[in-house]
Amino acid sequence: MNENNMIVLGVGNILLSDEGIGVHVVNALKERDSFPGIELVDGGVAGFSLINIIEDHEKVFLIDCISAPHDPGSILMLSPDEIAQKEGDRYSLHDFNVRDTIDLMVMRGTLPDMTILGIIPYDTTSYNIGLSKMLEEKFEAIIGKVTEEIKSYFSIK
């Protein structure tokens, strides 16, 4: 187990606009030095190799762009069980699927305490390193909500 056993992991493809929201959020938190003692990791589109990062920690807070019937910029808190229960649904917009990664860790008996924070995108098809105008306008509110949830999850005052 990693001596720093808490991690906030942002995943996504920053080349496809809002699909990279998890990475943009984690990088913004790093710049603000928001959580000393908690590892903030840009997981990009590392796919199944993220298992090596996730399994090494006791508590994992994963931030990702998800597809769900809500307004862009909405934030959903999901447990690994909720992701696994969505038979046929694919929340993740990556080539790898968060559910597949979780399923593999469950089979290996290595799934840590994990919460998934999913942010609803506006645009995931445009080749654009920045966020869509819609999510850019909501970015500070998203950061505020993410910060609240991370503090709650890790019991930080």
What does this molecule look like?
With 157 residues, the protein is of the alpha/beta class. It has a single domain (6-153), classed as Rossmann fold (3-Layer(aba) Sandwich). It contains five helices and five strands. The protein has helices at residues 21-31, 50-54, 80-85, 98-108, 133-153, and strands at 6-11, 39-44, 59-65, 75-78, 113-119. A five-stranded mixed β-sheet has the order 2-1-3-5-4. Strand 1 (6-11), helix 1 and strand 2 form a beta-alpha-beta unit. The chain is globular.
Identify the notable features of this structure and list them briefly.
five-stranded mixed β-sheet, 157 residues, Rossmann fold, alpha/beta, 5 strands, 19% strand
Uncertain stretches = 87-95
Extended strand count: 5
Alpha-beta classification: alpha/beta
The CATH architecture can be named as 3-Layer(aba) Sandwich
List the helices and strands and how they pair.
Elements: E1 6-11, H1 21-31, E2 39-44, H2 50-54, E3 59-65, E4 75-78, H3 80-85, H4 98-108, E5 113-119, H5 133-153
Parallel strand pairs: 1-2, 1-3, 3-5
Antiparallel strand pairs: 4-5
In short:
The chain is an alpha/beta fold and about 160 residues long.
